[in-house]
Amino acid sequence: MSAATLGTDWALDWVARAAKTVSDHRIDLIELDRAIGDGDHGENMDRGFTAVTAKLATLRPDTVGDVLKTVATTLMSTVGGAAGPLYGTAFLRGAKAVDGELDAAGVASMLEAGLEGIRARGKAEAGEKTMVDAWGPAAEAARRAAEDGQGPAEALRAAADAAAAGSDATIPMVARKGRASYLGERSAGHRDPGAESSSLLLAAAAEAAESL
Questions:
Q1: CA nearest 169: which of 205, 198, 210, 208?
Q2: Do the Cβ atoms of 2 and 153 come closer than 8 Å?
Q3: What is the pLDDT of residues 166-194, one digit of tens each?
C-alpha cells in the first residue's frame, strides 16, 4: 500500500536518488549530447545534483516546496548551458505549485507547473526534440492517474513511464530548438539528452514514492 501523500522525506529521497542516477548515467548523457550538442549535459547535470546534495545536507527543509526551491536555485547557479535555467525554472515553478504534502492531484499540478516553466523558458513545444517531449506526456499521465483516483506513487510511476516513452519518441525527431537544431535533418536518429535526463529524474521520483 503506497503512501496517501508525499512529504519532505519523499522529496529528499527523490533528490538523493536523482543525484545517484545522474551520476550513474553521466557518461551516457555526455555521449547523447556529444552527438547533437555540446557534449556537456552529463557533466553539467552531475555537477548540479552533487551541489544540490551538498546544499540540502546543510539545511533542514520543512516542506516539499522548500526542497524543490533549493534544487531550483542550486541548479540555476551551478549547471551550465541551457539545462540549468530550464531545470531551475521547472523546479521553481513546481515548488510554487506545491501546497503541503502531495496527493496524486498535487503531483500532477507540480509536473504541469514544471512543464509550463520549461515551455516559457525554452520557448519550446511538443515535437521539437526537447525536454518538453518527456515532461508533456509525464504531466498528462499524472493528471489522468489523479483523475482515475490513483495515489501519488501511481501518478509518479505513470509520469515516469510516459517520460521514458517520450524520450524514446525524440529519436526520430528533427530538432527545432537549441544547438541540436543547427544539425537540421542530421539530428534525426539521436535521442534528446534533455528528454533522457528528464526521464531519469522522474523515474527517481517514482522510485522514492514507491519505497515509502
A1: 198
A2: yes
A3: 999 999 999 998 889 989 999 999 999 99
